[in-house]
Fold this sequence. Notes:
- This protein is α/β, with parallel strands linked by helices and 368 residues long.
- The chain folds into 2 domains: 2-189, Ribonuclease H-like superfamily/Ribonuclease H (Nucleotidyltransferase, domain 5, 2-Layer Sandwich), CATH 3.30.420; 213-349, no CATH class.
- It is 47% helix and 17% strand.
- It contains 15 helices and 12 strands.
- The protein has helices at residues 49-55, 60-64, 69-80, 92-105, 118-126, 134-140, 152-170, 174-180, 191-211, 217-229, 247-252, 254-266, 297-306, 315-322, 331-353; strands at residues 2-12, 18-27, 33-40, 85-89, 113-117, 185-188, 242-245, 270-271, 280-283, 287-288, 291-292, 311-314.
- It has a 6-stranded mixed beta sheet.
- β2 (18-27) and β3 form a beta hairpin.
- The longest helix is centred in the last third of the chain and has 23 residues, at 331-353.
Amino acid sequence: MQYLFFDIECASCDDGGKLCEFGYVLTDEDFEPIARENFVINPRCKFDYYVIKKILNRPKEAYFSAPDFKFFYPRIYALLTRPGVIVVGHTTQGDAEHIGDDCLRYGLPSPDFDYIDIVDIYKGVRKENNAAGLTKMAQAYEIDIGEKAHSADADALYTMEVTKKLCEQTALSLPALIAEYPESEGRIENYADLIKSKLALKALTERAIADGTYAGGEEKRVYSEFLRAVKVNEAGAFYGVKVSVSENFVNFACRKAISLAARLAEKGVKVVPSSAACDIFIRYDLFYNGEKVFCRKLPIAEKAARRGKTEILTLDEACGRFGIAQVDGSATEFKAAKRVVRAYKKEKEAAQKNPEKFQKPIDTAKPL
């Protein structure tokens, strides 16, 4: 098995990414480099001012005198789809999509490939909630390769060194580390269809915001806080089952999502954010002008399903599975959820102010 660490730089991201660099480091399982290259690419577009002045390490002339994306495409495609290789990057989905953007721009098939994003592994290993930039990660591990960041091959090398440190810290091989943090796994596939799906999501979101049906800040806050506050029934028939739901359900039917979480808690089911670390993922298919609306969590759940780790159900199927008769999302239930959240916060604050009085973990508020 080999590992391919890659990174890209874009001249501009207006109307899709336009690559000006593709860099990679190919290693064996011991992180010993086999090959390293940086393809300097003519983006055939105007450079974003900030990118050329503040980010990239080469002058515009170096890019405009280079071959364009079509010249490097066969090698990039072969690298990303090479059998027996684990592809690793930093915020990899975005880089993969920008490669897809250029493929569409030049009328070329976009590569379909699985990838690993070290951001998710880094956050899990170091117990950090916020995403971290590659430079910050390298600094945290005191990594200095003696090269400036934002040359694509240098960033690929930094990604490799951070990954190596993560393996050393956990005493795990990269495949074992991936198994420990499955949320790091992703896949880019059928990018042309993905673009249509994302455009459908954008259009539907804009329409929902305009007509007031998109979840507002208060609703989303109540939803996320309610998941922490609601007490899962330990005597429930499905106690121990973890469920994750589509973000489209939360965004376009937030009060119903709160109601569903309450009903599931009564059955002993906990709603969790990760679609890679759940037993059941509830999909919520939406369409706009005949195009299926994009769901960020669904591809992750589908990959987990292929590994036999997750089952994917529709909302109706999930309600049938757990014996839930109704998910109405009424104003009454929304007010009840806010009371649950307030009670939980009040008890938590009391525990923090008087820890001696609360020797055992605080109880959470009751379900609706």
